[in-house]
Amino acid sequence: MPIKTPKLILLDFDGTLADTFKEMVDINNKLYKELGTDPIDYYEAVKLREVPMRNWLKIIEIPLWKVPKFIRTIINELEKRISSLEIFPDMKSVIQAIVENKIMLGVVTTNSAEYVKEFLKLNGLSQISFVKHADFLAGKTGVIKKTLNEFKLSPDEVVYIGDTVGDIKDSKRAGIKCIAVTWGYNSEGLLKKYEPEEIVNKPEEILNLLNLSQMTIAK
Description:
Elements: E1 8-11, H1 21-35, H2 42-48, H3 56-59, H4 67-80, H5 91-100, E2 104-109, H6 113-122, E3 130-133, H7 141-150, E4 158-162, H8 165-174, E5 177-181, H9 188-193, E6 198-200, H10 204-209
Parallel strand pairs: 1-2, 1-4, 2-3, 4-5, 5-6
Helix pairs in contact: 1-4, 7-8
């Protein structure tokens, strides 16, 4: 069912714009001794997508007190790989179509804002107006609410697009709608359990939901 066309769309970064899941697994497998985790094989990687990210700690057997170091290390290592990170196919064209329809775009991420800005620059996505950092453990709800206040927008004028259970929960707490994408860190089956407003399997489906289906995806 189409969603009312918003004035502002907030995007997640990892797993929504950038394909970083396989990079995260690779970093863990190269640094697992330093991180105090276990290596992640293919089957465990599939299993990770079936549980909320906060439950990953049990699967990779990382003690709670090591979580901050684990998060910092993964983020720092991802920053070193910024030039090789890939944007998901068709997401760039979807972003261009949204901007052409005069809808503001921003990113809310638990990554470093400067790192994400550099990725956007490298991928020709300067149309995205801003990037805001949210603490991984605190979640994104507070940042989303502050963003609404900053731009004097009501919750029904904003949509969040993300790929995890956490994105859905944070959006609901902030009172805004969430479109969940299935190409990121959590599987479609898991996302459905947390009842986002809509779930999409392809980037172009986002345009249909926002009543922007008349825009064409550039190949």
